[in-house]
Amino acid sequence: MSTTIPSLTDLHARGAAQQPTYPDAAALASVVGELRERPPLVFAGEADDLKERIADVAAGRAFMLQAGDCAETFGNVTAVNIRNALRVQLSMAVVLQYAAQVPVVKVGRIAGQYAKPRSSNDETRDGLTLPSYRGDAVNGLDFNAESRVPDPRRLLDVYNSSAATLNLVRAFVNGGFADLRTVHSWNTDFVRNSRVEAKYEALSDEIERAMAFMIACGVSDDAFRTVNYWASHEALLMEYEHALTRIDSRTGTPYGTSGHLLWIGERTRQIDGAHVELLSRLRNPVGVKLGPTTTPEVARELVERLDPDNEPGRLTIITRMGAGKVRDALPAIIEAVEATGRKVAWVCDPMHGNTYSTEKGFKTRAFPVIWDEVDGFFDVHAELGTWPGGVHIELTGNDVTECVGGVDELDEDALADRYETACDPRLNRNQGIELAFYLAERLRNDILRRGTNPIQEFTPREM
Ligand SMILES: O=C[C@H](O)[C@H](O)COP(=O)(O)O
Ligand SMILES: C=C(OP(=O)(O)O)C(=O)O
User: Fold this and answer.
1) Cβ–Cβ under 8 Å, residues 246 and 255
2) Is the CB of residue 239 less than 8 Å from the CB of residue 17?
3) Where is Mn(2+) annotated to bind (predicted)?
């Protein structure tokens, strides 16, 4: 178990991928110095708690719902946006918990998801070529030369925006907003008039009756008042993640304190690269994304690097193969990882392998294709007898039009109506809840077929 982390210089010497080129090194150093003095955003003990819950996922006793923005922006840190994001994610979790009867570990892509890896360093519009937007953590979305220059002071804004977001999230999940007894009212103003409304209302009625029954039986209703909700993001920017690493006073070991769960993206998972090196030293639960070019050998090496101590809950593997490839590419990867003797949490990201551009130039994803990848993920796990541990979704609580298909049958022409993402297309709230119903049904059927019930092996605790 590591008690130190490499220096920033050592990390950069590994040729850290997808890093901005800052024009002012002194300004960057000053920001890093300032961040090092700031209090941690999350506490090591919280990361440990999440690790225990992910251990439940890895062991087939719980399901992970990891969801949120593709790219958070500073301008979108408002009470309404945070509330809407939480509301749709908690609603999805409730659908899963009730209809599939699995405990759900709720992890947001939130309070830190400000940096984006890009396929191309540049973007060209009307003959003008400028550096690509790399997330509010790095540069501005506006398409002009000044805005696209990487500015290190943005890292302080990431810290401040993440702190403000976490503050409200903690207040919401502990202060009564997430009280299961109010499950009806969570969606009164937003599922209305959609075709998932009736299903959600019927489920809420059943939950209310089930809770009334439990209370009548003498079960304390305290358990319904609060929920656990964790923050995660892609640990992309070396300066930011390094500056927010703290040595835990209890154990003398390093924790990334920018979020509870940190993951390594598909573009930065080089086995000898800086991201794998840094995250292999942190004690948080960590994730790694695996795309369709991953070989079983690489998957095995990554697992051994990132989970050297074979620690329950340490590693989440987020596969994003694409609907057309998942059934062929995933089995060999699962087999290679299982052969190491480790129990990782297997999570399906059905978004990143299924993006395409419309003729009018909108990046989008089609709901049926997204579902097809999830379905393929379940098929593969059913075939191998492994546990399909969760999903990783780009989602917003707002009523956007970014992904086609789904309950409202959005077509490509509708995309122009409310296309608001700063980077990739997200499911809107109705599509999110619809996905949760699909997931619950598939999960329930698979659990029945397996003949083992996750609930029977689960030690009850607040979820
Ligand atoms: O969200 C993930 C990536 O940052 C995104 O898919 C990259 O998009 P690009 O291929 O347009 O750069
Ligand atoms: C960049 C992302 O995904 P991937 O690394 O899988 O491309 C992401 O999840 O934001």
Assistant:
1) yes
2) no
3) 70, 352, 394, 424
Closest to 8 in 3D by CA, of 162, 237, 233: 237
Structure tokens at 58: 């890895």
Q: Dmax of the chain from CA atoms?
A: 70
Answer yes or no: is the ipTM higher than 0.85.
yes
pLDDT digits (tens, 9 = 90+) for 308-356: 999 999 999 999 999 999 999 999 999 999 999 999 999 999 999 999 9
Per-residue tokens: 43: 């506490």
CB distance 88 to 196 below 8 Å: no
Mean pLDDT, range 210-217, rounded to an integer: 83
Q: Under the phi-then-psi rule, with left for phi > 0, alpha for psi from -120 to 50, and beta for the rest, what region is 133?
A: beta
Ligand nearest to the CA of 357: 1
Q: Which domains are delineated in the chain?
A: 8-178+226-457 (3.20.20.70)
Tell me whether residue 53 is annotated as binding. Answer: no
CA angle 379, 97, 55 (to 5 degrees): 70
C-beta atoms surrounding 325 within 10 Å: 16
Q: Which of 18, 72, 118, 402 to mutate to test the pocket of ligand 1 (most atoms within 8 A of CB)?
A: 118
Pairing of strands 104-109, 63-68: parallel
Which atom of ligand 2 is closest in space to residue 320's alpha carbon?
6
Rounded to two decimals, the pTM is: 0.96
Return the ∠ at Cα 78 (arms to 77 and 82), rounded to 5°.
Answer: 85
